[in-house]
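INFO batch 0412 | record 1 of 1 | parsing
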Amino acid sequence: MINYTITPSAVNHHLFTVELCFNSQRDKEYQLTLPAWLPGSYMIRDFAKNIIKLSATNEQNQTVDVKKIDKQTWQLISTGQQLSIHYQIFAFDLSVRTAYLDNQRGFFNGSSTFLAVSEVGEKNTFKNKPCQLTINAPENINNWRVATGLPRAKQTEKYAFGAYHADNYEHLIDCPIAIGDFDAFEFIVEGVVHHMIFTSRHFGDRDRLSRDVSEICQHHINLFTEAPFKEY
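INFO prediction complete | emitting tokens
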């Protein structure tokens, strides 16, 4: 399993801290890459420009040299049985494409946030592995919650900070994540719970929104014959 941890570490400076941990083999060469695109919007974008202070350590907490080989790719040689990659993301883009963080709310797309791992000379040795994402709460902010399409771990309650799972890297980057003091309500279509999340103040009619949007969801489930998810 590939383990990611993300923390809103400096909300007033718009910084997320990310740690990526994976098992490695000594003297093997690995690459870390960030996509230049995101699901649903395939224009080439320079997401990697927002990565700062990238470093790596082994399980003895010894520093591992990391070499940047192009604008979105880093390379390193393992010196132990596990590698931990540490970096920060500057999150100050109000669009839905990348990441944003301030003292009111946070948001991030996995494609602009989570580095993919590969072993040099091997194909898909890591991208097909399951991933666990731990989302930590910011310090001194007690009323924030988490909204994402990623499945929760058994010990993680709905809308709670904690552990979430993805089947593989593509699943991980296909589920955006919002955090903050948001308004959330639910409706059920074909036995599937659908969540509506509003991350800022609104004056919408929740009952009418639930009724109208549920009809749209029902139409699409009918079109595709079934809902391919347990929660949405």
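INFO post-check: Residues 146 and 159 are 5 Å apart (CA to CA).
INFO record closed
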